[in-house]
Write a structure and sequence with these properties.
- The protein is an alpha/beta fold.
- It has 16 helices and 17 strands.
- It has helices spanning 10-21, 23-30, 61-65, 82-92, 102-119, 135-142, 157-167, 172-181, 190-193, 196-210, 229-237, 299-318, 324-332, 355-367, 394-403, 425-432; strands at 2-6, 35-40, 57-58, 72-75, 96-99, 123-124, 148-154, 220-221, 240-251, 254-265, 277-284, 288-295, 338-340, 348-351, 371-378, 381-387, 410-415.
- The strands form two sheets. Strands 7, 8, 9, 10, 11, 12, 13, 14, 15, 16 and 17 form an eleven-stranded mixed beta sheet that branches. A six-stranded parallel beta sheet has the order 3-2-1-4-5-6, with helices on both faces.
- A hairpin with a 2-residue loop joins strand 9 (240-251) and strand 10.
- It binds NADP nicotinamide-adenine-dinucleotide phosphate (NAP).
- NADP nicotinamide-adenine-dinucleotide phosphate binds next to helix 1.
- Residues 7-12, 40-43, 46, 61, 76-78, 82, 100-102, 127, 131, 297-298, 302 line the site of NADP nicotinamide-adenine-dinucleotide phosphate.
């Protein structure tokens, strides 16, 4: 079997080393002899790991991917321009594809899966979601016979790291600069901090879990860029942490899906996910609640996932597997009529700059018929918790508050159970028992 590797950066570099170093082991595990035909890079003269022979490098990715002696194309370039063209062409020419590219699968996954099914080749993308956690395989294979009703996760380690730093009292700007200095955050961190990267991963999870042809531009997202140290401190005083959660629930016509920073109670498993770790909770009809966690990015975990996909593809080839089996899922993706936001009807907490604001907001919301659990001050932070009535959407509520001249400093959905979408009454009791002024 001929293998073409496209890209030799963080992920591709880790994979190239393993493909070369563990040749014997892979052949033993798969029963397939393979040859790494070449590695496409942008700059073939760049200094690379000394264990990779220099004559493998080429800057002609198109020629390498369409080499007739190549059966499997592994794409680790990233982005949706060059990579999309290469992947599409490889599939169209009957090559199996393994990709780590979340942007690509999140925006063009349904189309590429359908194409792979038509061409009878496999398209695997384990590294595209949550780095080293085998969530894609779990949804595609282990839970293949399940009906999955909802899922929720922390799928961006950069945001999780920054939120952790805010809890330690760092400012948002310092926390971001620190994450960049340590290599957690990109030089341009916007895709991470604005929630786009999480929305990409959520789209892929929805495709796999619900069989719906949802692409990421349809998913509403709010990032963490407006979160201040005071916000996480307020949540902490009420035994919550702010986490950027990607959340989806199957509905009759499609799904509810949203990425947003929300309050998660300290004792919830998602609240315990620290730093660069990721976690995904899945509720399946028969298997019940499942919780996956582990490292969400980085050379080791991500290359391990691409490596596992490579071994899976080689094994399928060895077993003269019916290649269409995997790809066929793509044809089954149903159109999603609705992709609604997830938090319109959620209980919310709003932090105000003065107690007067909180009291005025409470009066306004009550006048609109919105259930309010009472203004409270928490060592100087006026906080109001309310349950938006299902007749009002979040925008109408925000408008009503603005009309009353009481702009909250921040509003967060409060969420206790990532799976069932309930906010138990005990949370409200906790707020009522705070000293009111
Ligand atoms: N990094 C992670 O932790 C992680 C985790 C999960 C998934 N992923 C995904 O994995 C993919 C790769 O990410 P990465 O972090 O490994 O990226 P990276 O370090 O920036 O590496 C990209 C590689 O692609 C090569 N390249 C760029 N344009 C090219 C072109 N036109 N033709 C041929 N080669 C080209 C680059 O060549 P040069 O070396 O010459 O510049 C480089 O080797 C992305 O889709 C990313 O989303 C990454």
């Amino acid at each position: 079997v001929g293998i073409a590797l496209l890209g030799c950066g963080t992920v591709g570099g880790g994979l190239a080393e393993r493909l070369l170093r563990e040749h014997q082991l892979i052949q033993r595990r798969t029963g397939v002899e393979y040859v790494l035909r070449g590695i496409a890079v942008r700059d073939p003269l760049k200094a690379r790991s000394g264990t990779i022979p220099a004559d493998l490098f080429t800057c002609d990715a198109q020629a390498l991917a369409s080499d007739p002696s190549v059966d499997l194309v592994i794409e680790c370039i990233g982005g949706t321009s060059v990579a999309a063209e290469l992947v599409e062409r490889a599939i169209d020419h009957g090559r199996h594809v393994v990709t780590a590219n979340k942007d690509l699968i999140a925006t063009q996954g349904p189309r590429l899966r359908a194409l792979a099914a038509r061409r009878g080749v496999s398209l695997r993308c384990e590294a595209a979601v949550a780095g080293g956690i085998p969530i894609v395989r779990a949804l595609e294979e282990s839970l293949a016979g399940e009906t999955i009703s909802s899922l929720a996760g922390i799928v961006n380690g950069t945001c999780n790291t920054i939120l952790g730093a805010l809890e330690r009292g760092e400012s948002y700007d310092d926390a971001l600069a620190d994450a960049q200095a340590k290599g957690f955050a990109e030089a341009d961190p916007s895709s991470d901090v604005l929630g786009t990267d999480s929305a990409h991963k959520l789209a892929i999870l929805i495709q796999l879990a619900f069989g719906l042809a949802v692409i990421s531009p349809r998913i509403r997202r709010t990032g963490i860029d407006k979160i201040a140290t005071a916000d996480v401190a307020t949540a902490a005083r009420l035994n919550h942490r702010i986490k950027l959660v990607a959340n989806a629930r199957r509905t009759a016509n499609g799904c509810e899906a949203e990425v947003a920073p929300i309050w998660v109670r300290n004792d919830h498993p998602l609240a315990r996910i620290e730093g660069a770790n990721n976690a995904i909770a899945v509720r399946a009809r028969d298997a019940g609640e499942l919780f996956f966690s582990g490292l969400g990015a980085g050379r080791g975990p991500s290359a391990a996932s691409v490596f596992a996909d490579t071994i899976g593809t080689l094994r399928a080839i060895a077993e003269r597997h019916e290649y269409g089996v995997r790809g066929r899922r793509g044809l089954d993706l149903e159109p999603a009529i609705d992709v609604a936001g997830a938090y319109d009807t959620f209980e919310r907490a709003a932090r105000f700059s003065t107690l007067y604001d909180a009291i005025a907001a409470e009066r306004t919301l009550r006048a609109y018929g919105v259930a309010v659990s009472g203004a409270a001050t928490l060592t100087g932070t006026p906080l109001l918790r309310y349950l938006p009535d299902h007749r009002y959407d979040a925008k109408a509520i925000a408008r009503a508050l603005a009309d009353a001249n009481c702009a909250p400093a921040s509003i967060f959905p409060i969420w206790n159970d990532p799976i069932t979408h309930t906010a138990p009454a005990s949370q409200l009791t906790a707020v009522h028992s705070l000293p009111a002024t």
